[in-house]
């Protein structure tokens, strides 16, 4: 069970890296989803092959299979008019939910409860290119985490790069151009990460340290305030 | 208009006093000034190294410095007869330049506009960009209003000083200058946030003496039968910095509120019927209202205006994002 949890949190990181920005998602264990308040506009049940649930003898191959199945599920959800997809099999449950299905985050998020918000991923026009290899997920989390929340706290321990001003957050230099950076990119201190536009004044925000982008917190095209977290960079 | 960017852009570095001339020498000796992002080469020279004199209608550096009375702004000049963009010179070298360094060009081939717009500017236009460093992100967006205001105030002061008829140049929110219903100039500011500082490049283009394709300041003076009274670029830019330095000090010490009244007197929107697009409470929807602009309307909306356009022609649009609360009201909720 705990092991599966570790895998799942790896998958979260992996799929986020893989598909990046197109969808927001959440993985819960044992059907203990606590998002019952969210209306499910459209759902689709998918049977998964039996080996994904054989938790007692999970081989690397099985994990790899599982990851590729999850990633194709995410792609499926992303390509269709599905807002939310919930998949249950034995003690494993996967919930893929697009950002349209997420409740609006409360404006002043209390320190211990920004969990849902931290899964917000901005949308961009195109999907990230497919990863070179599917096998072990390229994740910074080494020890199996008991739950996604614990996995998240690893990221939360890193101080995010915050917005120095109020304005609109843009991930790319122009609407038709690719984003400055995406999750997984290595960045150098001084590299431009985003633009914040305030009353037609374009402000390029540079990385305050070198490292790897582990999370893009703010959403493309949405307003941000002073001190709104924008990126998490792992040194 | 079709001319290509020169292989190497000539940049002449000159200072108002020995102090700035020393800085100019260091910048040249260290080969500091570059236009790497453009893939352009620059050739930097000092006044003592000018071999062939510039053309008669080139920017007159001596006249400019004689009229300049500032302590910080405009005292180090980077002049070029022909340049891709003064904005690029300042923005790509901003960290290495003293605050207030100005770049002036006679002709600009790829002047910067918003949304990657490029402007070609023939002779007769006053084209310059200058460097500013700021620390408070809440006031950075308002800087462009101060730049607009400094320019309208400068034109006012020169007309008065030279005894020529008043030119009623007005600000079209947020960054254009209009005379008699036609655009005569624009302001573009960009900034880079680096090591807890905003390195701002503020650029101004003002049509002083070129009548084509629309109008210019001197054409307006001709129309009121003032044939001998032409405004000169050197006088205008010097007056601009003289005004800007004072307005900027007020702006930093007291906030934009202290300049609001002057701003309202100078913009062209008072009394206009406009459509205001405002963000709704959930931030994702827009609400449209038709309102008449009152001078105090900048303080009136709750969430901040997303877009404004005139009822008849939708000429002007603006994007101001939910400033209410962030800027203490001043322009906060435009």
Automatic annotation (TrEMBL), chain A:
InterPro entries: 2-oxoacid_dehydrogenase, AcCoA_biotinCC, Biotin_BS, Biotin_lipoyl, Single_hybrid_motif. Pathway: Lipid metabolism; fatty acid biosynthesis. This protein is a component of the acetyl coenzyme A carboxylase complex; first, biotin carboxylase catalyzes the carboxylation of the carrier protein and then the transcarboxylase transfers the carboxyl group to form malonyl-CoA. Residues 148-157 have a biased composition (Low complexity). Residues 128-147 have a biased composition (Pro residues). Keywords: Biotin, Chloroplast, Fatty acid biosynthesis, Fatty acid metabolism, Lipid biosynthesis, Lipid metabolism, Plastid. The keyword Protease does not apply. It is found in: Plastid, Chloroplast. Residues 36-55, 126-157 are annotated as: Disordered. The keyword DNA-binding does not apply. This is Biotin carboxyl carrier protein of acetyl-CoA carboxylase. Residues 158-234 form the Lipoyl-binding domain.
TrEMBL record, chain B:
Residues 62-252 form the BPL/LPL catalytic domain. Gene3D superfamilies: Bira Bifunctional Protein, Domain 2. InterPro entries: aa-tRNA-synth_II/BPL/LPL (IPR045864), Biotin_CoA_COase_ligase (IPR004408), BPL_LPL_catalytic (IPR004143). Keywords: Ligase. It holds the Pfam family BPL_LplA_LipB. Belongs to the biotin--protein ligase family. This is BPL/LPL catalytic domain-containing protein. The lineage of its organism: Eukaryota, Viridiplantae, Streptophyta, Embryophyta, Tracheophyta.
